[in-house]
Structures are given as C-alpha cells and as structure tokens.
Amino acid sequence: MRFDEAYSGNVFIGSHPNYEESQVVIYGMPMDWTVSYRPGSRFGPTRIREVSIGLEEYSPYLDRELDEVKFFDAGDIPLPFGNPQRSIEMIEDYIHTLLKDGKFPFGLGGEHLVSWPVIKAMYSKYSDLAVIHFDAHTDLRTEYEGEPLSHSTPIRKVAELIKPNNVYSFGIRSGMKEEFEWAKANGMHISKFEVLEPLKKILPTLSGRPVYVTIDIDVLDPAFAPGTGTVDAGGITSKELLASIHEIAHADVKVVGCDLVEVAPIYDHSEQTANTASKLVREMLLGWVK
C-alpha cells in the first residue's frame, strides 16, 4: 500500500492531500474476522469517513479548526479476508512504517483485536507506554472458544506485554468473573461503569508519559450507539465520552496514537453511531494532536 497518496474514494473531512507534510495519518483496519456475535465492523472506517462531510470543521469545545492539524487519510489497509493472523501482521508492519516516518497513528476499526498489533508496535518505540481503554467489555480473555486471536482478547495481550499496571480501562460493565479477578490480582486499573470522574483521578498519575488511547464505541449506551457488534446496556452518554476526550486533551500527558473501533453501520439505519464516531474523531484530532 502506498503512503504518499490517499486511496481513491472518500477521505475524512479536512484531510491534507500530502502524506509527507502531515503530522497525523488516519488509516482504516476493516477487519471483523473474529467477532463472537454480530459482524459488520469492517465497514466502519468507510462510513465514518463518508458521514464526516456533515461535520463542521470547527470545534466549539476546543476552539480549534481541522485546518490547524495536518492529517492525511491513507484509506484502509487491504487486509486479507478471513485471515486474522496475516491481518494483524500487516497492521503491525504498517504502524512501524508510520512511526519510522514520525507520524501520529490514528486508526479506525474494525473489531477491537486490531488494536493489539498497533499497541505492540507503539510499545517498541515507547518503553514507558500507558494505555487508556474505553469499552463496555474487559477484553481480558486469553481465548474465545479455544481461539486466542479474538476480539475478546486484545487488552489481555496488551497488559501482558506492557504490564497490567500500565493499562487503565474505563466504562467496563461486562466480562467474565475470572477477567475481573485477573485484573485485580495483577494491578490493572478497571473502572466499572463510570468514565469521566475516575479518569480525572488517573490522569495526573500519567503526567508526562506517552499514552495510547483506544476507544470501543460500545462504551456508549446502545441508546447513543446502536451500530456496533456487541451492544451492552448501561453505558455512558456521548456527552460523557466527549468530555473524557477533552479531559485527556487538557491533561499533562502525551497522546502518541489512538484508535476508534467497533462501529458496525449495518445495525444503525439512522447512522447515529457513525455520525457520533465521526464527531469523536474530530475532537480526538483537535484535542490530542498539539
């Protein structure tokens, strides 16, 4: 896949036409090969871009416009359908190239397993990396029905790589008892149900550190984001998630990369989920890229 020009098709609103001149690279990871419930998140990256045309390029929250951040939309990584092992290898290789070129990686999923190779590559550059994880689910299983490559396993893989005490999960409201017990026994931070207030308490402890942020759209209540593969009642509002993004923006942490995953447009004919995701992308760009 070429890095010096966007794919032919829609790009996220306000994207810069030149890769070399851009600080940020948006890329899609259209994979849903391992989902345990409803597939369809492989169509998320494209739809998030398409609905972005309805966004204002100005954020009244941050008083910034998209033209203040040079970001290049590189399109989707051409992942091999049905092959999770090869797909995650391709994603990791792609991120290594972005990091070599000094770019800020901004991923659009796709199922949550796609975050694993990204964070693995990020850790090779930032040995003191911390991960902030917004999700309805713990994602701490070692396998699902005997398969270790599953969208229910990425955070466990990340925690075992960078050490559990460097992983901070928020909004969690679903998972096996054993997952919660493992997190507690190993010093991993899990905030059940809530996001904003516990995040405010955690951020000062990450002062000055490189941070990667991964957002699973199902951290939102299904009333705000029905278009996802594994909906789970009792989530936070879109207003709370936006406030959390802004809290990170104002904190003394260095966000070095991020992703937004699990948008499955087929389950939301109103396109509420894709439009919400698109706005989140705008705020992440303007808030986290200085």
From TrEMBL:
Its cofactor is Mn(2+). It is an enzyme of class 3 (hydrolase). It comes from the Bacteria. It catalyses: agmatine + H2O = urea + putrescine. Pfam families: Arginase. GO terms for biological process: putrescine biosynthetic process from arginine, via agmatine; spermidine biosynthetic process. Binds 2 manganese ions per subunit. Keywords: Hydrolase, Manganese, Metal-binding, Polyamine biosynthesis, Putrescine biosynthesis, Spermidine biosynthesis. GO terms for molecular function: agmatinase activity; metal ion binding. CDD domains: Agmatinase-like_2. Mn(2+) binds at H112, D135, H137, D139, D216, D218. InterPro entries: Agmatinase-rel (IPR005925), Ureohydrolase (IPR006035), Ureohydrolase_dom_sf (IPR023696), Ureohydrolase_Mn_BS (IPR020855). Its EC number is 3.5.3.11. Signal peptide: none annotated. Pathway: Amine and polyamine biosynthesis; putrescine biosynthesis via agmatine pathway; putrescine from agmatine: step 1/1. PANTHER family: ARGINASE/AGMATINASE (PTHR11358), GUANIDINO ACID HYDROLASE, MITOCHONDRIAL (PTHR11358:SF26). Catalyzes the formation of putrescine from agmatine. Belongs to the arginase family. Agmatinase subfamily. This is Agmatinase. It comes from Heyndrickxia ginsengihumi. The lineage of its organism: Bacteria, Bacillati, Bacillota, Bacilli, Bacillales. The gene is speB.
